[in-house]
TrEMBL record:
Cellular component, GO, one term: chloroplast thylakoid membrane
Source organism of this protein record: Galphimia angustifolia
Coiled coil: 64-98
Similarity field: Belongs to the ATPase B chain family.
Entry protein name: ATP synthase subunit b, chloroplastic
Molecular functions per Gene Ontology: proton-transporting ATP synthase activity, rotational mechanism
Protein's job: Component of the F(0) channel, it forms part of the peripheral stalk, linking F(1) to F(0). F(1)F(0) ATP synthase produces ATP from ADP in the presence of a proton or sodium gradient. F-type ATPases consist of two structural domains, F(1) containing the extramembraneous catalytic core and F(0) containing the membrane proton channel, linked together by a central stalk and a peripheral stalk. During catalysis, ATP synthesis in the catalytic domain of F(1) is coupled via a rotary mechanism of the central stalk subunits to proton translocation.
Amino acid sequence: MKNVTDSFVSVGHWASAGSFGFNTDILATNPINLSVVLGVLIFFGKGVLNDLLDNRKQRILNTIRNSEELREGAIEQLEKARARLQKVEIEADQFRVNGYSEIEREKWNLINSTYKTLEQFENYKNETIHFEQQRAINQVRQRVFQQALQGALETLNSCLTSELHLRTISANIDMFGSMKEIMD
């Protein structure tokens, strides 16, 4: 390091300080060239570097600002979504409660309707049984009446002589005649 500082400070040590020429000693000229180049870069590049850093800083700040705005928008949307979710959950609970009530009501309506239908079927069954019993009784009555009538006719035909037959006809004619006089 001492050689580098000596090359800048002690210009009097150079024998050819008064003449112009090329110094071929690489170790002595490199630090000088580097320092000159760095000095020029720092002097002229300082503004460009500051501009680049300022642009980069502005981009980072804009990105942070946009991220904050997006974050606030996301938080706002999240709050709205939570509010909607809470509202929907309340409505779902109400629908669930109302649905259960409606289901219970429909169940009881169905049970009552089924009970009424069963009652009607029971009444129809009883009416049908009563009707069939009456029909069977009427059929039995008709048979009994037919058999009694047939037996009476057979008895009449076997007992009835022509004289008895004429007397019965005249008695019936007289009876109808008297009924006609009463009616007139």
